[in-house]
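Re: the 326-residue chain
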Amino acid sequence: MPAITVDDVLVLPRLPRLDESTTFRPVRRLTTAPSGYEGEGFPVRRAFAGVPMTDLDPFIHLDQMGEVDYAPGEPKGTPWHPHRGFETVTYMIDGIMDHQDSQGGGGTITDGDTQWMTAGSGLLHIEAPPEHLVMSGGLFHGLQLWVNLPRVAKMNPPRYQDIRGKESALLTTPDGGALIRVIAGEIAGHRGPGSTHTPITITHVTLQPGAELSLPWRPDFNALVYVLAGRGTVGTERRPIGTGQLAVHGAGDALRVTADPTQDGNTPALELYIMGGQPIREPVAHYGPFVMNTRAELIQAVEDFQAGRLGVIPTGRLPHTGGAAS
């Protein structure tokens, strides 16, 4: 799980030691993501399955894509498809993914890079592995997070951000037991590169066996801890948690996660994707690739798409390699 890393975490800035007055957030809910297949056999874990929208707000959906080692000719992408009313945040851990949209946005991400697409008023886009990866096969592993937009921003012009992994703010714990990559928002004064409409924080944490993470967290944000790989405990109550599980936290000032001293031979550390944001607290009307506030707005989005008002597929477009829209 390469993402972005450093040779020596001890050279990085460190989290502050939290004092005794810190209120650690309790774990309110622990769920296990169901595994399934999309399209022509693309494996995913639906990380938010079974979690009420009120616990997720401002997030809508999270897929863990892979981890899968493709044979030559097997890698798959998506067809051209629309979005309106939210943002997609695609974080690539292993492998390569190309993106192109009808507004001129696009790029290639690999090993810790992020594509941040604000759909806003609407566009068409496609995600596909490059031709050389289709030919060779190889490891593929990533995440796609959907972030809601407030009513006032849902019809903003679309925007695309290409965030290199090396741009993430990197820090560690006081004892050097973790590598913390801040992708968006701020942790202990260290700000990530992602520019967001909705105030949120996203971080990918690698926690070494036996290490403990005491992570300060904005009290007005919700807090979701998803395990990409490994085993450990979460909360001061030390509830066991492992690969594919999500911990939804209650109120407080900080999160606590501890890695088990012994990890699986294929998973040398506990890998966490931690998200939180300021709840929007608006009605959510969700249908396929559209996230609006009312049913009437959803109907309008479908009509606009069918009428070609969300954009047209550009010339010189990426090829469709099969699979389902995301």
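The radius of gyration is 19 Å.
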